[in-house]
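Example 9 (inverse folding). The structure is encoded as follows.
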């Protein structure tokens, strides 16, 4: 019997008001039902928002260091449950165990960072232009935060949002992706075990249209933090703009790794294999394009194809697996679609390009690691996000062309250059239009205490992670205290 899960609304574990449910199956083995979850709707969502609103006044007045102490306990509980929940994450969305452990660890790091932030949340004191007057700024909570997350980082991304939201004194309504509802439920259990007031965290399972849309439109929701596709991000931006809601959008990517003629090729090879096929290419920071200097193009391609041929597909729980399944049928159809597009556009399919069906793979959503060569910058496979194990290789003649080709997409999340030349490296850091540039590192591998996010259509300018996410989840308040005992007029009495 599959495990049965519930929503957490108004301090209680409950079914959906309409009584409907949905199943979540293991993408590596469709026979395995990971769990059965409530298929919620507007009624459930409204109850969750009402509870979060009710809890807000008490939570916002809880001293921030005390909120931080709870975050410390969250981290401690997460440490104890790391192995159990990493395995659950792999069963839910497929990526290999080493990577779900990493995803989970990012949640632990985020909890401890939040814990420390409870004793910081710095404001400024600034001299007044008038005598006997004191000026200060401070960070205030905002209200009810609506959190909408994707499936590819089932633990890290919800923690990036929920922990700082709560630490700043906001209360939360959390709508996770329907592909990873079990991980989301476990995260809420941990928050409750650590001592978050029950009504301050609410969890509503269900689809984007039935739960996500009413969450965005709800007048009692003060801010929305969304990570997902650019397509949905645009809808959320325009919907929440109607009510002038504060919105943070972390969206798609079309990331590239450049390999210059002076690069250490073995190192660059490790980087592109990890960047392109880690998480089966389903990271927002995945290496989707490889830009090779013409002098090393042929040699590097040979090395690359040799390594790709050796990648072992399989269940992410097995130690022998290098690449897990694609998350679901719709995602595998997107990959198939783009592989057709690439062939029609005239790129050369050098390896892969088909669903894998051998043996146990026949029971899951497996796609062979795929490389296109002879890709040109104007092709769709060089510009559009695919979100699967597909790499497009482009050839360039110098550093300027490499950076121009890299920038030739609507996205601007992550990027990488392998080079031993410091001039190339600093040029890349300055001229690449991405929120993140790695030098001699893969396009994936963000650290929890650094700002994370992208330029151009990858987002709307906010950053998760590090100190910057605390700016999104709090509002600046300024206070002036006049202790002169008389009316003092700024800009008038002192000039
Ligand atoms: P998605 O946009 O389909 O869904 C994301 C979330 O939004 C899900 O919870 C979904 O149910 C919900 N949703 C869907 N339609 C909605 C609507 N109309 N209103 C409100 N909510 C709605 O994305 P996905 O397939 O889950 O994730 C993959 C995408 O996420 C990729 O484009 C990837 O690049 C992006 N991503 C970005 C980052 C980043 O930090 N920039 C990180 C991870 C993933």
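The amino acid assigned to each position is listed next.
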């Amino acid at each position: 019997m599959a495990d049965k899960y519930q929503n957490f609304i108004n301090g209680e574990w409950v079914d959906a008001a309409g009584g409907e449910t949905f199943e979540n199956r293991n993408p590596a083995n469709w026979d395995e039902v990971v769990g059965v979850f409530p298929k919620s709707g507007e009624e459930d969502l409204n109850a969750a928002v009402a509870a979060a609103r009710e809890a807000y006044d008490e939570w916002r007045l809880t001293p921030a260091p005390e909120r931080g102490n709870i975050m410390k306990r969250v981290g401690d509980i997460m440490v104890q449950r790391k192995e159990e929940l990493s395995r659950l994450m792999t069963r839910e969305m497929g990526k290999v165990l080493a990577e779900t452990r990493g995803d989970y660890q990012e949640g632990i790091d985020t909890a401890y960072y939040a814990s420390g932030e409870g004793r910081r949340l710095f404001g400024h004191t600034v001299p007044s232009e008038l005598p006997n007057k004191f000026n200060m700024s401070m960070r205030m909570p905002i209200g009810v935060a609506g959190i909408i997350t994707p499936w590819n980082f089932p633990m890290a991304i919800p923690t990036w949002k929920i922990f700082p939201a709560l630490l700043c004194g906001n209360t939360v309504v959390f709508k996770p992706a329907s592909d990873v509802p079990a991980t989301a439920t476990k995260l809420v259990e941990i928050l409750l075990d650590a001592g978050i007031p029950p009504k301050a965290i609410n969890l509503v399972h269900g689809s984007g249209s039935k739960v996500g849309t009413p969450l965005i439109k709800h007048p009692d929701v003060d801010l929305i933090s969304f990570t997902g596709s650019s397509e949905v991000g645009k809808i959320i931006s325009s919907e929440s703009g109607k009510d002038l809601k504060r919105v943070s959008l972390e969206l798609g990517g079309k990331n590239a790794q450049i390999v210059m003629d002076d690069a250490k090729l073995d190192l660059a090879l490790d980087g592109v294999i990890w960047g392109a096929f880690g998480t089966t290419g389903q990271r927002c920071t995945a290496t989707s394009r490889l830009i090779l200097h013409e002098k090393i193009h042929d040699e590097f391609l040979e090395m690359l194809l040799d390594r790709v041929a050796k990648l072992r597909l399989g269940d992410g729980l097995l130690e022998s697996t290098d690449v897990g399944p694609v998350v679901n049928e719709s995602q595998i159809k997107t990959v198939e679609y783009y592989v057709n597009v690439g062939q029609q556009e005239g790129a050369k399919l050098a390896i892969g390009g088909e669903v894998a069906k051998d043996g146990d793979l026949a029971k899951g959503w497996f796609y062979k690691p795929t490389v296109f060569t002879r890709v040109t910058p104007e092709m769709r496979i060089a510009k559009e996000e695919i979100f699967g194990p597909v790499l497009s290789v482009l050839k360039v003649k110098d550093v300027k062309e490499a950076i121009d080709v890299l920038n030739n997409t609507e996205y601007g999340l992550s990027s990488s250059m392998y080079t031993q030349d410091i001039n190339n490296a600093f040029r890349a850091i300055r001229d690449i239009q991405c929120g993140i540039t790695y030098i001699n590192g893969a396009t994936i591998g963000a650290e929890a205490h650094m700002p994370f996010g992208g330029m151009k259509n990858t987002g709307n300018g906010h950053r998760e992670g590090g100190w910057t996410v605390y700016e999104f989840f709090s509002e600046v308040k300024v206070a002036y205290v006049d202790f002169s005992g008389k009316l003092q007029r700024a800009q008038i009495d002192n000039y």
